[in-house]
Amino acid sequence: MDQYVRARKDKFDRGCQGEIFRELVGTLDQAYRTIIDRHNPDTPQIFGRLLLICHKSMLAAATLIAQSQPDDSVGITRRAVEAAKVALAVKLNDDNAQQWVSFQERHDRWIRRQQNEKPGPFHPQYKDLKGDPVVEELDRFLGSLSDAYVHFTPEYYSSLDWEEHRKPDGDGAIFLNYFHRDAREVERHFNMLAAVHGVILKAFDRCFDGGISSDPEMFATVNEFWKSAKRVNDGYQRRYGIAPEPSLG
Q1: Helix-, strand-, coil-residue percentages of the chain, each rounded to 5
Q2: In the Cβ-directed half-sphere of 76, how many Cα atoms lie within 13 Å?
């Protein structure tokens, strides 16, 4: 345990000093903080609360990526996508707030669990979301993040950093590196984090009636983040010859 904790701290200290972390996460953090400080206080409180959740999620996920545990960051990022989708759903139709809460359905599920019964699946049925381009972008991330990293799928299993050592006599050992050694994989997750939160910021601009894009200071910080994201993603593409992440232009 002590060895793991020391390794985690060492990876974190080095990762946070990296150029990608300082530039990309730094500008994204600044964009969030500017929006939090300057958004219209007359907007419904729920949007401010959900924005804070997304900012917290971004910081938590970014630190996990920086300490070379990118796969553990994705569940946090997926939850932020869900929060942004709830915010936009409520903006598009007030009735969606009650759909999200769905007290009776959730209460019934807990009762069934306490009775050692398996509750059926429950998905809030939001109104007026079909065809909305930002909702569709959020949904694409929900699906891809779930399949590749959040659930225990073959895709997640194959993304881990495995080592197999074989001896001439046939004996050997299998190792799982708890901290990813592939710099490309770590960089890819930083790019994915930027792409996801770029769409999340689009969702909140809608929730704030275009207040982010119309406010010069908020717009400037978001634009600086986009410039940083594009520089980082272009560098990744040049180094590894891989197509850029979606939504980065």
Answers
A1: 70, 5, 25
A2: 21
